[in-house]
Amino acid sequence: MNINGLFEKLCSEAKNDRVRATLNAINTVCQEQHDRGSKDFSVATISRLGEGRGVPKSQSIHNKTGEIYRALISAWQNANPITKKPKTPASLDWVENIEDLALKWLVYDLVSANKALSSELQLCKSVKNLKIDLRGEQSSSTEKRELLDVERKALTGSIDHKFLERRGWKRTERGAIIDTANGEVIFKNGFASGIEKLTSISVSEY
């Protein structure tokens, strides 16, 4: 049965004038799709194109009561099938026709290598900006400096026995500086020994 015949049959079976008017609206939209050469006769598309022209929403067409409308849309779709492009043979089908096994696997290896290179090429193309720094490697560490004599003397003077004695302090075996009167810790363990190590470092060790 052609589309016109089906359309007339559906209209004759329609329960009321409202259904017939809806069928007519759908048929008009489908005819327009056909005239413009479109192959899209999906319910969603027909509903969208027929909005405000008497075509129901796609959800209503998909409901049980919309079966009569789907039949008409399906008829238009079947009359305008989507032409499928001929399937092109897989790019590696010809390799399977190589009888020499050694040569066949060699070709597969070459194809695999080509794909890898192509991927790398695409990656390179995707890089918009590439900055190359040709300057020599620079040390990230802060430049080390030798203690000045005045600095060295100031540090060693802070743990000098006479200086500590005048202040009523003394140095413990663990390098702390404490008040001899009440035992209060002035500088914690390692202070004096740390000063000695720091001031004894030579220029070559810096």
Please explain how this structure is put together:
This protein is mainly α and 206 residues long. Helices cover 53% and strands 4% of the residues. It contains ten helices and three strands, in the order αααααααααβββα. It has a three-stranded antiparallel β-sheet. A hairpin with a 5-residue loop joins strand 2 and strand 3. Helix 1 (3-13) runs antiparallel to helix 2 and helix 1 (3-13) packs antiparallel against helix 5. The radius of gyration is 46 Å and the shape is elongated. The protein starts with a helix and ends in a 6-residue tail after the last helix. The model is unreliable at 202-206 (pLDDT under 50).
Question: How do the strands line up in the largest sheet?
Answer: 1-2-3
Estimated share of beta-strand residues: under 5%
Number of helices: 10
Distance between the termini: 99 Å
The geometry reads as elongated
Give the helix level as a range of percent: 40-55%
Largest sheet: 3 strands, antiparallel
SSE ordering:
HHHHHHHHHEEEH
Low-confidence stretches: 202-206
Describe, in short, the structure shown.
The chain is 53% helix and 4% strand.
How are the SSEs placed, and which strands pair?
Elements: H1 3-13, H2 17-35, H3 43-49, H4 58-62, H5 67-79, H6 93-96, H7 101-126, H8 149-157, H9 161-166, E1 169-171, E2 177-179, E3 185-187, H10 191-200
Antiparallel strand pairs: 1-2, 2-3
